[in-house]
Specification:
12 strands, eight-stranded antiparallel β-barrel, two-stranded antiparallel ribbon, about 60% strand, about 5% helix
């Protein structure tokens, strides 16, 4: 039986996962977004099919993250809205069924840090910085070692040519340009 001390280590007084490849468990991954409708109401959505890995390096600052998102799996809780988001007005999933994120720098400060990388949507790549936390370690009932991570950030959707909108009579826009990103993933140590 593996113990937490066998798959975690202490770096600068903080627990972090051991070096290795930690694959994202798609069944326990949330890549979500939050925008505003009428500039007031919060509207949330998520992508239900996500895959990728976190490669934890001996020096945590050299760690890498790579994620692929199946854009066809968008779910905002409303079929009409989901179909609109899948259309040419937004993600155009017929032409661009996948999005990706690949980190190029990671900064750790204990269990927290920031990660900058390239987010590609609709074949447009822009830099994005996410704040993240290493939430902790768990051993599941099937003898998998899991490291859990959480991240968040903000983007302007128009940077990826997601520009569809409608002006409101009292000023403002129907859909906010600024989108909040929320990520929660369980990763499994590759053996």
């Amino acid at each position: 039986m593996t113990t937490a001390s066998a798959v975690t280590r202490t770096v600068d007084g903080h627990e972090v996962p051991i070096a290795g490849t930690w694959n994202i468990d798609p069944g326990h991954a949330l890549v979500g977004f939050l925008g505003r409708h009428f500039m007031l109401t919060k509207v949330r959505g998520r992508f239900t099919r996500v895959e990728g890995s976190v490669v934890v390096a001996e020096n945590p600052q050299e760690s890498k993250v790579s994620v692929t998102i199946d854009m066809t799996s968008i779910n905002s809780g409303d079929d009409t809205r989901d179909n609109h988001l899948k259309s040419e007005d937004f993600f155009d999933i017929e032409k661009f069924p996948k999005a990706s994120f690949v980190s190029d720098s990671v900064t750790f400060d204990g269990e927290n840090g920031s990660m900058t990388g390239a987010l590609t949507i609709k074949d447009i790549t822009r830099p994005v910085t996410l704040q993240f936390s290493y939430v902790g370690y768990a051993r599941d009932p099937w003898d998998n070692d899991r490291a859990i991570f959480s991240a968040h950030g903000r983007v302007n959707r128009e940077d990826w040519n997601l520009t569809w909108n409608m002006p409101l009579a009292n000023g403002g826009l129907l859909v906010s340009k600024e989108i909040e990103l929320e990520i929660e993933v369980e990763t499994i140590l590759e053996r």
